[in-house]
Amino acid sequence: MSAPIIKIDGISKSFGTFKVLDGLSMQVMPREKLALIGPSGSGKTTILRILMTLERIDSGHIQIDGEQLYHMERNGQLLAADERHLARMRQKIGMVFQLFNLFPHKSVIDNVTLAPILTKGMPRATAEKRAMELLEMVGMADKAKAMPAQLSGGQKQRVAIARALALQPRIMLFDEVTSALDPELVEEVLNVLWRLCSETDMTMLLVTHEMGFAHDFADRVLFFDRGKIVEEGKPDEIFRNPKQERTQGFLKKIIAAGHRV
Amino acid sequence: MTQWSGYFGLILQGALITIELTLMGSVLALIMAFLAGLGRLSRFFVIRALATAYIEFFRGTSIFVQLFWAYFVLPFIGISLTPLQAGVLALGLNVGAYAAEVVRGAIQSIGREQYEACTALNLGRWQAMRHVILPQALLVMLPTFGNNAIELLKATAVVSLISLTDLTFQAQVVRSQTGNTLVPFTTILIIYFALALIISWGVRSLERRMARGLDGVRV
């Protein structure tokens, strides 16, 4: 049994008086594909944002690949992480956002090459060659010269995935990546996720409302409610035979809303 | 007629001084705008405080007084400036203070999601600013920068008070020598207006060039 690549230990996070995460602990094994489901405000997106260092935790510890994310050891003491430590830790993690967050002033290929050139000092020619391979993989190679504003939502999201992959993270976080898309565009993005899932050995955390996809994609499903993991297990267990009342209630509502499981 | 052409020559010389002042003042204003505008967003209190003090002071006092200070008071502490230097200094610092707020506002208008994408891609603070935030913010700044440049152009008229031979100064010379007010002041009115039009037009075409591709239509 190898060591977990993500180890979350009793973290809490509040926004004002609202406690989003309440002493949450969880572990993720390398290569594991995880689906995080639950009602909005349950804290699942916040976990991804905390792992990407977009939000800070109030208390608790997080280890990525055996190293503290928000703390660093100096002379046997745990200190708050400085920007350099965070930058080193971020190299292991990539994130794709609900609203794509592409850089509107840069062409598709420049969106993909910017970070490798700046953060890894990759020569432009190498970065562009690798970017084209990634764009090929997400089916966007023919739009390499296009500007983001010329693309559909599904195309933007595929570019955003290529952009995150360009830094070769070991962990990828997907935050409701199909929620902002028109229904007919959801599938092209899910197809890309599916390829990543079956062809790479990245650890993937997926926050989603696509229950059918979560079922097929995930090794393990975590159901969140009010900042806690209420239930977790294999997709079949969670979706076909949920034990907790709150999970049952949530899935019933989701199915009533027309999502297939 | 030959006499009038001589006077127009004077006014044209004045126009050159006005243009020179406007250009040099704008360059200084631009530098100050970015220094102070970025300074106000600094992580360090001292830099924020310095930037804020500069902006508030130069917005809160008259350009007229600032100019007299630069030209007549600075010599008392051993800094003697030529009229042109004093003019550029006062104009640049004054307009730069207004433009600094434009820089700050434009940077803050860029959505949080752009900063978050930069963090997720592990760009450093300065890399994010330089490659992602500023290029987008610049487009927001441009129209107001155009306004600032026109304000600066018009403010150059005050330098005639420290004997710099700009448009307004030359118009006064012509007026005192000919006794005619209508011709010289109408002439410089038109020249100021024409210069302002050139600035507007230049800024607008720059804006169009920079916006290319951003809306998905014009590429």
CATH fold title of the largest domain in chain A = Rossmann fold
Major β-sheet profile of chain B: none
CATH evolutionary superfamily of the largest domain in chain A: P-loop containing nucleotide triphosphate hydrolases
Following the backbone from N to C, one meets helices and strands of chain A in this order, namely EEEHEEEEHEHHHEHEHEEHH
Annotated CATH topology of the domain at 15-165 in chain B: MetI-like fold
Give the beta-strand count of chain B.
0
Q: End-to-end span of chain B in angstroms? A: 53 Å
If helices are DSSP runs of H or I spanning 4 or more residues, what is the number of helices of chain A? 9
Biggest interface reads: A-B, 28 and 23 residues
Q: What count of helical segments of chain B does DSSP give?
A: 8
CATH superfamily of the domain at 15-165 in chain B: MetI-like
Would you report the number of β strands of chain A? 12
* N-to-C CA distance of chain A: 31 Å
Question: How large, in whole angstroms, is the Cα Rg of chain B?
Answer: 21 Å
Strand order of the largest sheet of chain A: 8-9-10-3-11-12
- What is the CATH C level class of the domain at 15-165 in chain B, in words? Mainly Alpha
Mean pLDDT of chain B: 92
The string of secondary-structure elements of chain B, in order, is HHHHHHHH
Q: Indicate the proportion of strand residues of chain A.
A: 25-35%
How would you characterize this protein structure?
The complex is a heterodimer of chains A (261) and B (219). With 261 residues, chain A is an alpha/beta fold. Chain A folds into two domains: 183 residues, P-loop containing nucleotide triphosphate hydrolases (Rossmann fold); 70 residues, no CATH class. Helix content of chain A is 38%, strand content 26%. Chain A contains nine helices and twelve strands. Chain A has a six-stranded mixed β-sheet with strand order 8-9-10-3-11-12, with helices on both faces. In chain A, strands 2-1-4-5 form a four-stranded antiparallel β-sheet, with helices on one face. Chain A has a two-stranded antiparallel sheet with strand order 6-7. Chain A is globular, with a radius of gyration of 19 Å. The model of chain A has no long low-confidence stretch (mean pLDDT 92). Chain B has 219 residues and is mainly α. Chain B has a domain of 151 residues: MetI-like fold. In chain B, 79% of the residues lie in helices and 0% in strands. Chain B has eight helices and no strands. Chain B is flat, with a radius of gyration of 21 Å. The chains are: A alpha/beta (261), B mainly alpha (219). At the A-B interface, helix 2, strand 8 and helix 3 of A face helix 5 and helix 6 of B.
